């Protein structure tokens, strides 16, 4: 599992679910803000240089970024052919949400 973005308030909830399930593990993380990447020290070794590199090793992608980045990150996940979960709201507008949902 890959986490793209660590800005959403539910990141800690998602990490708790991952840690509680022996069948899940985080293989990479990416966020444009260095302070968010260092906020979870146990994940520091998993930092990828960019979202495309992070997505390349994923089996599933969880997007917990700021809403404004959802479009780019959903496109990264779709281009990598990966299933994923995007924290709400999906898009900044209804039209963007429909476009992203179609990916």
Structure description:
By secondary structure, the chain is α/β, with parallel strands linked by helices. The protein has a single domain (about 1-100), classed as NAD(P)-binding Rossmann-like Domain (Rossmann fold), CATH 3.40.50. About 40% of the residues lie in helices and about 15% in strands. The chain is built from 5 helices and 4 strands, in the order βαβααβαβα. It has helices at about 10-20, 35-40, 50-55, 70-80, 95-100; strands at about 1-5, 30, 60-65, 85. It has a 4-stranded parallel sheet with strand order 2-1-3-4. It is globular. The relative contact order is 0.20. The model has no long low-confidence stretch (mean pLDDT about 90).
Please name the defining characteristics of this protein:
5 helices, 103 residues, Rossmann fold, alpha/beta, single chain, 4-stranded parallel beta sheet
Task: Provide a brief overview of the structure.
It is built from five helices and four strands, in the order E-H-E-H-H-E-H-E-H.
> Helices and strands: which structural class?
alpha/beta
| Strands ordered across the widest β-sheet | 2-1-3-4
CATH superfamily: NAD(P)-binding Rossmann-like Domain
| Termini separation | 19 Å
Largest sheet: 4 strands, parallel
The averaged pLDDT comes out at: 92
What is the overall number of helices?
Answer: 5
Note the overall shape.
globular
Q: Quick one: CATH class?
A: Alpha Beta
Can you write the helix and strand succession as a string? EHEHHEHEH
How many structurally independent domains? 1
Uncertain stretches of 5 or more adjacent residues: none
CATH topology: Rossmann fold
């Amino acid at each position: 599992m890959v986490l793209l973005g660590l800005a959403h308030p539910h990141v800690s909830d998602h990490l708790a679910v991952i840690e509680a399930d022996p069948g899940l593990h985080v293989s990479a993380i990416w966020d444009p803000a260095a302070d968010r990447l260092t906020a979870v020290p146990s994940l520091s070794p998993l930092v990828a240089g960019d979202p495309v590199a992070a997505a390349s090793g994923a089996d599933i992608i969880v997007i917990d970024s700021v809403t404004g980045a959802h479009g780019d990150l959903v496109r990264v996940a779709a281009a990598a052919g990966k299933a994923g979960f995007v924290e709400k709201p999906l898009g900044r507008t209804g039209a963007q949400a429909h476009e992203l949902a179609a990916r």
